[in-house]
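For reproducibility, we list the full input for the guanosine-5'-monophosphate complex.
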Amino acid sequence: MTTGCLFIISAPSGAGKTSLIKALLSKDAHLSLSISYTSRQPRPGEVNGRDYHFVSEQTFREMQVQGEFLESAEVYGNLYGTSQKWINKAIVSGQDILLEIDCQGAEQVRRYFAQAIGIFILPPSGKVLEKRLITRDQDHTDVIRKRLEAVREEVSHVNEFDYVIINDELENAVNNLVCIVNAERMKRERQIKKYQTLIAQFT
Ligand code: 5GP
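The corresponding predicted structure, in tokenized form, follows.
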């Protein structure tokens, strides 16, 4: 059985990562998105089990102690983590996996999966990012301020990623994302493993 690709997508808050990922998933049936656990309160419209697994801080910390997370981090004052169990299952089934996590989480995942493919999303400008955060209007003003302050730190990790996409125009950015995913799937090492029998017919 061939092991699927593991994609990590990170971005500063307001870079449009969630819309991009939604569009990518609608175009690619072979990608499975990991649903993270978080201690953050749901935003209007968010659904438990679809957007996140929303848990109390106490439950999250208990899960941490029990080793239930592949990675976990505190981001903007809330706790976020990726389920180890879910990842193990997805890997065994050979699915391509998508993690939408922050740079701290990405660093932890790379320790276990050096072959993980990192994609960083940038907004076209600081002004656009600020406007997106404010017009999203789903967070309190102090939360928005906290997120804006954290952008510089997050962007400083851009060098740790394999690809960078500027989310200027959604359709364009989605197409670029699709290209990266497909190109990674066609990598020689992966294809040679997957098509051993085919190649053997000619060698
Ligand atoms: P939001 O609260 O806006 O949904 O997400 C805030 C930040 O937490 C984003 O940068 C997002 O990528 C990150 N995040 C979401 N889930 C996880 C996770 O499971 N682990 C880590 N490390 N970060 C996460």
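The chain has nine helices and nine strands. The pocket of guanosine-5'-monophosphate is lined by residues 13, 36, 40, 71, 73, 75-76, 80-82, 100-102, 104-105 (CB under 6 Å). Both points were considered when choosing residues for closer inspection.
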